[in-house]
Amino acid sequence: MSLLRPISSIGYRPTGRMRTVSLCVFFGLVLGVAGGFLVGRYTSVLGPDQPPPPAVAQPAAGATAPAVLGQPAAPTEPPKEDGPPPPPEDVRRLDTKISGSLYATLAKNLEGRQADILNAQLGRILVWWFEPRRDVLKSDRLQLLYKPPDNPTVLNVMAVHYTSEKNRRTYKAYLYRPEDSRYGHFYTEKGEAVEEYLVNPPIEEYEQITELMNLTGRRHRGVDFKVDMDTPVRAPWKAKVLRRNWNTRRNGYCLEIKYVETGTRAFFLHLNEVLPETKPGKVVAAGTEIARTGNSGRSTAPHLHYELRTNSGKTLNPFKVHETRRAKLEGEDLTAFTAHRDKLDSWLLRQEPADESAPSPSGSTPSKASAK
Predict the structure, then answer these.
(1) The CATH number of the domain where 302 resides is what?
(2) d(CA 32, CA 53)
C-alpha cells in the first residue's frame, strides 16, 4: 500500500491532543479580539499620539506631592525679592562726592531752599566731629537720608554717613527718639549721643543745639538750644538776679543773673516771659524756674540763647564751664535703636537699578530716590 494518499482520502478523527490545540487557538482568537477592542477605546480617550500615562512614584518623606492628573497643582510660595524692601515714597536719598564746599555740593544736587535747610542741619551734626567749613575735602563722600514733612520749608535728616578723607574714617548718625524722650536725637551706630550735654543745664530737655559759641565770623557769643515755646528755664546754680528786659528790640525778653559761688554772669535771651517773681536783687536757688523760652527779639524760631561772661566781660564757653556728658542708650531703647538703625541703613545703602541716562557713580547727581 502506498504511504502517500490524497488528503481527501484520509479519514479524520481528532485525537485528544488535537482537541487541546484547537481549544488554545480558539481562546487565543477570543482574547485577541477583546484586547483590540479595549485598546481602541483607550486610544479614543487619550488621542492617537499620546502614550499611556507613566506610573506615578510615591514622594519621599518631606517632599512635595506631584500634581494629580485632572486636579490643580498645589499652590507655591511667591518668589522673594532680592535685598531689603525699598524705602517709603516720601523718603529721599542722596549719595554724592563733595565738590567744593558742603553747601555747594548740596546746591548742585537739590532744588529750592532744600540745600540751605540741609546744609544747616548737617552742620549741626558734623560740628561735633570736625569743623565743616575747614575740614571738608573734595574727595569726601556724603550719604544722606532725609524726609520732607508736611511743611515744605522744613526737612528732617534721618541718617547720615560722612566719609572724611582727612580723618580717614566714616562718621555715622541716626535720628531716634527714645521711649521716654520728648524729642528725637542723633546717635552714633553704637547708640551714643552725637551731641554733648551740659550738666546742670538751663533747660532740662531740648531738641538740638543749633549753634555753638563761635568768636569768629559773625561772632556768636553763646549756645542756642532749639526748644518749644514756654519751656521752663532754670538757674543752673545759686544766683543773684541782676537785670531783666533791656535792649528788647535785639535780645527780646531777657534776663541776667550772677552765679554766687564763681561770680560768672549768665544771660538768657529771646524769652517769651521772665517770671514776675524773678526781680533784680533776688537770690534764687539752683534749679529755680526763672523764665520761659520764646521767640522774641532778633530770632527766627523758638530757642534759648545761653551766654556766660566773667566779671571783666570775657566771653566763656558754656561747654568749658559746665561739666559735660554724652547720653548712651541701654536696654530696650538700645534694642529698638539697633533695629531702627539697620532699617535706615538698608534704605541708605540700597543699590538703585542701573540707568543708562544717569551719570557715572563718581558724579555728584543724587539717586532716583532723592530726585523725586
Answers:
(1) 2.70.70.10
(2) 23
Which pLDDT tens digit goes with each residue over 258-313? 999 999 999 999 999 999 999 999 999 999 999 999 999 999 999 999 999 999 99
Please write down the long-range contacts of 113-120, taking CB distance under 8 Å and 24 or more positions apart.
Answer: 113/153, 114/155, 117/153, 117/154, 117/155, 118/144, 118/146, 118/155, 118/157, 120/210
pLDDT digits (tens, 9 = 90+) for 341-359: 999 999 999 865 544 333 3
Task: Give residue 172's pLDDT.
Answer: 98
Is the distance from CB of 110 to CB of 92 less than 8 angstroms? Answer: no
Is residue 279 within 8 Å of 319, Cβ to Cβ? Answer: no
How far CA 105 is from CA of 139, 212, 233, 285, in Å, comes to: 12, 24, 39, 49
pLDDT at 176: 98
Q: What is the pTM (predicted TM-score) of this model?
A: 0.72
Q: How many domains does the chain have?
A: 2
Contact yes or no for 240/230 (Cβ under 8 A): no
Which residue type, as a one-letter code, is found at position 280?
P
Residue partners of 308: CB distance under 8 A and separation at least 6: 222, 264, 265, 266, 267, 315, 316, 317, 318, 321
Mean pLDDT (whole number) for 60-71: 48
Domain, as residue range, for 295: 196-325
- Domain match, 152 and 206 both: no
